[in-house]
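Quick entry between incubations.
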Amino acid sequence: MGKGRLEAFSDGVIAIIITIMVLEMKAPHGDTPGSLLPLLPVFLSYVLSFVYVGIYWNNHHHMLHAARRISGAVLWANLHLLFWLSLLPFATGWMGENHFAAVPSALYGAVLFMAAIAYRILQQSIIAAEGEGSVLKSAVGIDWKGKLSPLFYLAAIVSTFWVQWLAQALYVIVALLWLVPDRRIEQAIEHTPG
Amino acid sequence: MGKGRLEAFSDGVIAIIITIMVLEMKAPHGDTPGSLLPLLPVFLSYVLSFVYVGIYWNNHHHMLHAARRISGAVLWANLHLLFWLSLLPFATGWMGENHFAAVPSALYGAVLFMAAIAYRILQQSIIAAEGEGSVLKSAVGIDWKGKLSPLFYLAAIVSTFWVQWLAQALYVIVALLWLVPDRRIEQAIEHTPG
Amino acid sequence: MGKGRLEAFSDGVIAIIITIMVLEMKAPHGDTPGSLLPLLPVFLSYVLSFVYVGIYWNNHHHMLHAARRISGAVLWANLHLLFWLSLLPFATGWMGENHFAAVPSALYGAVLFMAAIAYRILQQSIIAAEGEGSVLKSAVGIDWKGKLSPLFYLAAIVSTFWVQWLAQALYVIVALLWLVPDRRIEQAIEHTPG
Amino acid sequence: MGKGRLEAFSDGVIAIIITIMVLEMKAPHGDTPGSLLPLLPVFLSYVLSFVYVGIYWNNHHHMLHAARRISGAVLWANLHLLFWLSLLPFATGWMGENHFAAVPSALYGAVLFMAAIAYRILQQSIIAAEGEGSVLKSAVGIDWKGKLSPLFYLAAIVSTFWVQWLAQALYVIVALLWLVPDRRIEQAIEHTPG
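Done. Structure below.
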């Protein structure tokens, strides 16, 4: 009930988030290659965030594809996830403009951490709405990626005050981890009469 | 007739409204935790408005799900609602940047008041288009939340000139009131052959 | 063929156009009612443009509902219409910020004129794609509104250099003319086996 | 599987890209025709980019219409294309504000080049997902336009450092080349039991 519109609204918000991040990259005043150089950190943080939002859209897509029932709690758990994702452009811009300084990098990690928690809450609320025999539940399985990612974000938040670039390295590693599409859900659906 | 596209267009506008509000939160120039502090009121008013827009999307979703017939008047009543919601980013930014001063807080309440009135007009126009035996009409019932909210907004507008924080307290109370999903409509649909 | 996606893309672009216009209204620095006053012309031109974009969405909705066949020419005629509508936020902002001065008011009229022409081209290209027995063709009929509006815009463009407020008066009159929904198309569809 | 949502998300992102480009055109402070003049290069580059994004939407529309199967690789190939398209507003603004200077014009060409490569990768990944007997594969055929365009972009990037306006001329020529809709795919679909 209403799954289509939940997907459409989420697609809209995610499409806007992924696109307005590029607005942080203001056209420089000069017209030389050198005038682009100061934008490099902003560009790199844009690439990182683009990949993260892409991962969220991809996983969201697969998760809702597996979902059979949408409750009121699911609608709000979804909005909660979109709220944290909506803070990503701000965190991205701040981190990029400050050349990956410790505090902005930690805030970036905090937003990723909260988004990851929100994603798990959404996942649990869909499973709860479906009850016994949830396709999503068996598809998710032990979900080691979902459990590991928040720990990586916490490690990044702490480590950036010690070695600045460690946070970025950890964010890139988690992104690569997720870039491999979630075959578990795809397989579970194929093995289930839909 | 045309319900799908009305929903899609409304979803698009609401998705953009909920996302561009975050653009009011400009990345600060410093890179210390202290440089984030001045943004706190802007952030808090963003959270409040995000919840309000989320509530409107949620209720809009349920209302149109119950609707069976869309007339030309409904299309315009819907645009009228979207107009007032589109002013929310402006009102949110002004209120946040002025640390919840009286006049901006009152304007924020005025926008919420007009949106609430517009929502009721939309509700009535759908019921009018459906005529006798409207599912939505029986679902809405006495609609005490819909009748109470505008009174709260008026009280907030008046009270903020007397005790500044009272407006915010009232806005939060109304939001909490609505966060409980509108079970009436869900139940009425379940008891009706759709 | 592909009507759904044409509608969805148009809805997306129109939803963004109608929403980003509000970004021209920057939150003022003061927190008094007086600090809102300089925004009044920007607000009024926003209301006018919101109504115009609403009219276009409404008519677009009805026209595509009546369309049975979409050709490649229709896709480009549609993009051509969206191009002129996309210039409305710019024209709106310039007119509002200059308190309805003659040149910006004339440019606003020129954008409305081009959008009206583009709408007619789109209408003709759909009718051409459908060939004999086009539902849309019989629905549109003599189309006196579509023929009259461009003349009004031209009159407004000329008259604003003579009496400044005449352009605005004409824009409001044309908007009121269109606010009455296009019953002709609705009726033609009802009388046609769809 | 999931083609609808892939189309909807792409439509959303492309709709936002095509619309936010107009935000680069800031309303000038004066209210004379002369105050519009400095905006002319920004306007011209907006028109060029609008046409390019329109071409991409159009071809994307036809390509996915022909696609029968969507894999995880297709989802990411699609996001990869959207990434390069998302850089077009930045490149457009920079080129326009610098009156088509050599370096910004070359960057514009580089973004177009990468988008063209990304489009080909997406095309190949759909064909790969469909395997033998792919409708899209036979529809695309020798794809001389797709193979020629990147060469034109490279020629433009090189030539702009020699004769500045040559890049723009080449960009316009490629755009005109593509404006002719891709009849091959349309025909292949018509000859195939869908």
